[in-house]
Amino acid sequence: MTILKMSLSAAFLIMTIMVIRILALHKLPKRTFLALWGVVLCRLVIPVSFPSRFSVYTFADILNDTFGKTNAPFAFPNATTLPVAWSIHDMASPDSAVMSSSSVSLVTAVWIIGMLACILFFLMTHLCRLRDYKAALPIDNEFVKKWLHEHPIKRKVAIRQSDKISAPLTYGIFRPVVLLPKETDWTDGKRLCYIFTHEYVHIRRFDILSKYLLAASLCVHWFNPFVWVMFVLANRDIELSCDETVVRTFGETMKSEYALTLIELEEKKIKLTPLVNNFSKYAIEERINAIMKMKRTTIFGTAMTFTLVLVTILIAFVTPAAAIETDVSNEYDIYNPEIYYEEGEAVFIGTAEEQDEYSPYDEDGNTILVKRIIIDEQGEVTAVVPVENQLSENITPDMTTTFIAVNGYENVYKVSGNSPLPYYVFQQINIYAPSVWVAVIPVELQIKNK
Amino acid sequence: MEIKLFDSELKVMDILWKDGNTTAKQIAKILKEQVGWSKTTTYTVIKKCLDKGAIKRSDPNFVCSPLITKEQAQELETTELINKMYDGAADQLVASILEQKKLPPEVIQRLKKLVENLE
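Above: the input entities. Below: the structure tokens describing the complete assembly.
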């Protein structure tokens, strides 16, 4: 699958989740959405679909597709095995193939440049912030000591304060640090408990890691507006899910207090911030609503969650596979015998063995020359021998050797006729991997005589 | 002349005001013990102080000397750094671009009402 295909099927998923989110944000456990975004993340980064015709070849093809088209010249592994008397013709002439491959590489270049720009942007801003965070000062008060003592986590958690932030936050995966604004009110134990619990839930769930993954997938799929939407929504849902856990921890009676704590944190921010505008729906509003409308998880809710996640996984990883199958028929047109002859044209279509047997004569005993289209057992074209490339003598190959070409198709034949000398009809030989044109063997490079 | 300094910068200044001229290396050592900063972090903060003109560097040995007195240093109020700040993890920046994060007072009121009503 190409990045583009992955992006497209992910876009479809994201749209679906957006709809579910609008319809049922307050009805489903918030973890549902995290799981759903998780599925999309997998779809965005894992270039495999199930069920797919999985083999080494499709794997090679995936690599090919993912990392750009290669036009590596193909060399026969063994020069003594003489290549073909047949020319493989196809609709895409080498020239047009070269053209399209150069436009593909332009697209690839733009994609890579965009990706690098995104990575640079995220990395720079993130590192700048980290530099500020690292210069935070330790806090040494009773509340912090007590908290650390009562809430042990395997990783060592540091609690610090900074005058460069206006809301509490957590950073660091292996050595997490909870950073509090300088103006934190250390006398309000209850609120502090909420804030700390919230940050601890983030730490325990490795939410920072999820955020990194989201940012990484955004960098790769920067051209996809849906992935940007996902980035924002998934980040919000991480908060919503965290809030949910906090409320469950303390019991639903504290919902309002918790909500008010959050509002107050926002209020503090305003004091510090000039107003810009107010056109959009605020994330905090959604958050407050989510907290206040939180209900006990019902069996129905849990069942819905499982169903949704399961269905999404199916959509994500099975439909694209079906899509691949359709693509096969489109993209693989070159394997369709029908495109190699005009209506009414006399042709022979058959396997290599069948064509060995095929030698029509007219009344005078002369060979009738018709275009020969050689197909394999699946009915896919492996070679086309136009009339011009055939000799008028009766060519009955007395020997047909085949060997496996790189792409796994037995499309190279060694043929000798029944004339005194074996001869070979050479033209260009094109080798195709299932979807990519990988090699041309021009006449000059083919061995004419043994 | 008054210079506005962050807490982290004041931490460095404190050492200079107390001990007088000190090498950057020594500052880093003291702060490592005091607040657990890495050498890089300390040097970054020292550089900020240099840029703001709060300290002077003399070589060799990167000796730092304070250019201002404790009275001239002001705590920077958080209000003043807001425009370039955003909260939360750095990767939230995109979110803050795509959505409005600062709430006008009337929205705060509305939210408080919401909490009351839903209770």
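Note for the figure: The mean pLDDT of chain A is 71.
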